[in-house]
Amino acid sequence: MVILKKNIASLLTTVVVISFAAAIVGIGPPPPIMPSNFYGTAMINGAYVADGTTISAWIDGSKYAETATFTFEGESVYTIEIPADNLSTGGKEGGEAGDVVDFKIGGVAADQTGTWSSGTNVELNLTATTTPPAPVADFSSSSTMGEVPWIVNFTDLSTGSISSWSWDFGDGGSSILPNPSYEYATGGTYTVSLTVTGPGGSDTETKFDYITVTEPVPVTSFSGTPTLGEAPLVVYFTATDSGKIGTWSWNFGDGGTSSAQNPSHEYTVAGSYTVSLTVTGPDGSDTETKFDYITVTEPSPEANFTVNPESGVAPLTVDFTDLSAGNITAWDWDFGDGGSSSAANPSHEYSNPGTYPVSLTVSGPGGTDTKTEQDFITVYEEIVADFSASPRSGESPLVVNFSDSSSGEITSWLWTFGDGGSSSQSDPSHQFTGPGGYTVSLTVSGPAGSHTETKVDYIEVSSNPAIIADFSASPITGDAPLTVSFTELAWGNIDSWFWSFGDGSSSTAPNPTHTYLWPGVYTISLRISNIEEYHIEEKQDYITVNEPSRDYFMIFMPVIN
User: Fold this and answer.
1) Whole-number Cα distances in Å, 499 to 22, 100, 510, 529
2) Rg of the chain over all Cα atoms, to the nearest angstrom
3) CATH superfamily entry for domain 222-297
4) Among residues 360, 365, 348, 276, which one has the least CA distance to residue 312?
C-alpha cells in the first residue's frame, strides 16, 4: 500500500509538472485548472470490496467522477480524479475550491467526505455500512395430525440473515430453538407461528389451524386399599385412567356410588363387594369391574367402660357403664373384691375400704377383648373427728396439749381454740392467756371428705388468785393417837377457812388441832375464801400416823413335875 501511495502521488505530480511546463514555454492555450485527486482503500461492512466495484465522486448531488477498485497487496484500492469546473461556461463541469465531495462505494454512500482542492492528492480510506434485507419466515412440521400425547418436530425454512427464533405452538407452549420438538398433551386444533429476527429486521409466519390433535379413547383401571378389613372399613380408591375423561362413575357394591376421580368409601356391614368404575370422555367410555374385590369382616369387639363414682366412703355403690365398641353378645365384669357380673351395665357395692382393680371382658362374633383398670375404685373409711386435751383447767396463762384421736384417712387438720387462735398441726399445743371457758373444735379432712368435732366450754381457765392458801403442821409423823397442830400460812384478805384432815374430819378454825386415832397416811387440804374468790392448797400424804408402840414383860413360872 505504501508503494501504491508513492506511485499514485508520483504519477499525479508528473501530470501537474508537464502541464505547468507546457504553459511556460507557451505551447498551446493556457492550461486548465488542475483536478483534485483522491486515493485510498474501499470497504463495505468492514470488508474489502470486490475488484471492479465502482467508486463515484459527487458534489451537491451531481456525480463528477467515477472509477473502479482493484486489489493491491490484498487490499481493495482506488484512485479518482475530480475535474475542475470550467468557469468560462455557464454550467458546472467539476469542483471548485472548498466544495464538499461525497463518495459512493458501489452505490452505497461512504462514511467519509473530502474537500475539493485544485492540484491536490489526498489519501482518503472509504468505508460504508449496508443494512441487510429482513429475513423471510417459513417453517414445516413432521406431521399436522395425531393423537394425544403427540410429538411434532418443527423445521425452520426461513431465508435471510437470522439471529433468533420465537415459536408459538398455539396451546401456550413456546420455544426459541430453530428446529424444536413439541408435545401436545391436550386434544384440539392449534395455530402455529414462527417469528425470525436478524440484522435486517423481523418476519412472522402464521399457519392457522395447522396442527390437529385428537384425544384417545379412554381406558380405565382402578385400585383400592385396603381390600380386606373389619367393619367399619374405609377403602380409598384410585383411578388410573388414560385418555381424555370427563366423568367418573363408581359403584361400590353396597349401594354406594361416587362421581369423584379418587373417592373413599366406608363399608359398615360385613360381606364381599363387587366394585366397578365407568369413565366417559369425548371419544367414548370404558368400564372395569372387579368381582368380590372388597372383603369386610365382623369387627373384633373393643372393651371399654366408665364408672360413677370412682371413689367414696364405705359402703360405696358404684354404677358401671359399658362403652365397648363392636357387636357384643356377652359381658363379664370383675370388680376386684371378689364380686362379678354378666350384666351390660351393673351396679356393685364395695363394703370395705381399699383400692380395687376393675376388668371387663366382652365377647361377640368377631372375638373377645378385655380392658383392665388397675387401682380404679378407691373406698375410704368414714372420717370421724375427735380429740382430747391436757390439762383441761387451770390458772392463766394455761398451756394445753391437744391430741387428735380422729378415725379415717386424714390429710389435714384445722383447730380453733375459742380464743381466736388456730392450728393446722395434728397434735398442737396452745396457751390460753385469759380466764374463761373456751369451746374447742377440730375439723379433719381427707379423701373421704371432712368432719368437725366441737366441745363447748372444754377448757376452763381461772385468773391468778388474789388470795393464796398455805399451811404447816407439827408434828407431821408419830404414833397413834397423834395430835397435830395446824398453822394457817395463807396470804390475802381471808373471810373463812375450811380444813380437811384426810380422815373424814374437818375444821373451820384458822389454826386448828386434830388428833389422828388410827395409823395411816393422810392428805391435808385448806380452802380459804372471801366474797370474791377462793383458793385451795392440798398436800398429798402430808401426815403419817404409825402403829402405837407396846411394852412387853416375862413371867417365869416353876416347872412342876
Assistant:
1) 196, 169, 9, 12
2) 70
3) Immunoglobulins (2.60.40.10)
4) 348
| Domain 2-128 -> CATH class | mainly beta
**Is residue 464 very low, low, confident or very high in pLDDT (cuts 50, 70, 90)?**
low
CA separation for the pair 292, 252 (Å, rounded): 10
Q: Which of 233-242, 381-390, 457-466, 469-478 has the lowest mean pLDDT?
A: 457-466
With bands split at pLDDT 50, 70 and 90, how would you rate the model's confidence at 31? low
Same fold for the pair 305-380 and 387-462: yes
pLDDT in tens, 128-144: 988 778 899 999 999 99
Q: Which numeric CATH code is attached to 305-380? A: 2.60.40.10
Which positions ≥6 away from 340 have C-beta within 8 Å?
Answer: 332, 333, 334
Cell numbers 429486521 label which residue? 201
In CATH, what number does 139-214 get?
2.60.40.10
Residue 119, Ramachandran bin (φ over 0: left; ψ between -120 and 50: alpha; else beta): left
CATH class (in words) of the domain with range 387-462:
mainly beta
Beta strand residue intervals within 129-246, DSSP E: 139-141, 145-147, 150-156, 164-168, 174-175, 181-184, 188-198, 201-214, 222-225, 228-230, 233-239
User: What secondary structure does DSSP assign to 119-153, as a single string?
Assistant: T-EEE--EEE--PPPPPB--EEES-SEEESSEEEE
- CB 444, CB 403: distance < 8 Å: no
375: left (phi over 0), alpha (psi -120 to 50) or beta: left
HEC letters along 441-480: EEEEEECCEEEEEEEEEEEEEECCCCCECCEEEECCEEEC
pTM over 0.70, yes/no: no
Half-sphere exposure of 18 (CA within 13 A, CB side): 6
Query: Which fold does the domain 471-546 belong to in CATH?
Result: Immunoglobulin-like (2.60.40)
Q: Centre a 10 Å sphere on the Cβ of residue 232 and count the other Cβ atoms it contains.
A: 11
Q: What gap in Å lies between CA 326 and CA 336, rounded to an integer?
A: 25
Q: How far apart are CA 165 and CA 204, in angstroms?
A: 10
Q: Would you kindly state where each structural domain of the chain is located, as residue ranges? A: 2-128, 139-214, 222-297, 305-380, 387-462, 471-546
